[in-house]
Design goal:
single chain, alpha+beta, five-stranded antiparallel sheet, 50s Ribosomal Protein L5, Chain: A, about 30% helix
Length: about 180
């Protein structure tokens, strides 16, 4: 079992149930899925960029990514309908917890000039963040990376609102910026 999943079941879930006055563990906030997206804008013109992004995202997540394609032709961006422009992975279950564990404990501490994550949720309890470089993950071999590529990570939380999601993620170890006492 994933280390973070064990921690959720043994430590975090009882504390969340007590804090929010819940009797049923299924009513407590829990992770539903994590969506990792790499948009490669020049991927439509440079053939190798999409394959490199797919390979690197596959290494990071342990799951084969889906190539995303342009839905509508836009001449200003020089893209036509059906051109590949990125890749996306949806993680659930054990892989989701393993990825989140590596993100919290390995990747985020390796970000340069990191001062904490902003507490910006979407109003439904979901949290999104962006990384500027894929090389903050140790699985990606730095010497073989040709292009530095960023990614967008969305954490979808079930049975939640913004406050409950904040409590869940902070108890799991997400390094949020502390609010200053005003």
């Amino acid at each position: 079992m994933a280390r973070l999943l064990e921690r959720y079941k043994s430590e975090v879930l009882p504390k969340l149930m007590e804090q929010f006055g819940l009797k049923n563990p299924l009513a407590a906030p829990r992770l539903d899925r994590i969506v990792v997206n790499m948009g490669v804008g020049v991927g439509a013109t440079e053939k190798g960029r999409i394959e490199a992004a797919v390979a690197e995202l596959g290494i990071l997540t342990g799951q084969h990514p889906v190539v995303t394609k342009v839905r509508k032709s836009i001449s200003g961006f020089k893209v036509r309908k059906g051109m590949p422009v990125g890749c996306c992975v949806t993680l659930r279950g054990r892989r989701m917890y393993e990825f989140l564990d590596r993100l919290i404990n390995i990747a985020i501490p390796r970000i340069r000039d990191f001062r904490g994550l902003k507490r910006t949720f979407d109003g439904h309890g979901n949290y999104s963040m962006g990384l500027d470089e894929q090389i903050v993950f140790p699985e990606v071999p730095v010497d073989k990376v040709e292009h530095i590529q960023g990614m967008h990570i969305t954490i979808v939380v079930r049975n939640s609102n913004d406050q409950a999601s904040y409590e869940l993620l902070s108890r799991l170890g997400m390094p949020f910026v502390r609010e200053s006492p005003v």
